[in-house]
Write a structure and sequence with these properties.
Number of domains: 1
Transmembrane segments: 47-69, 81-106, 112-137
Shape: globular
Keywords: Membrane, Transmembrane, Transmembrane helix
Distance between the termini: 13 Å
Radius of gyration: 15 Å
Strand content: under 5%
Protein name: DUF1440 domain-containing protein
Largest sheet: none
Amino acid sequence: MLLTAILAGAAADIVWEVWARTVTPLLVGGPLQPAALVRSVFGLESWALAELIHAVVGVVFYPLGYLYVARPVARVVTPFLPWWVVGLGFGLGLWVFALYVMAHLIAGLPAFLGFVPLAWASCVGHMIFGLVTAVVVRWREAR
């Protein structure tokens, strides 16, 4: 399962990065920069370390959360939902975690960054991340 999680996380993180750094600037005028949030949360000065932390969380920890928390909970609470809806919901949950818990409750920024366009781009990016995670997990389990 660890290999599945890492493959899912790597694929989802690549798609996230394309969305964050290529598509988002076209839509809202600037890229998503999760390292800036990581720096705010942890009081880091190093941009590279903040990027590394975000990458490790995305490649390893978030997919493990999907496999061992989100999907099992969904199977019990909402067993009627298709796998792809669970993936999108997982991504939405990651967005709430990032922009409410981490950004607002811990870093002291406005909740959901005040719902500026960049926050909505982040929402879409996290939902795409969750969907790609679910797609890769489903593919790996079907083999």
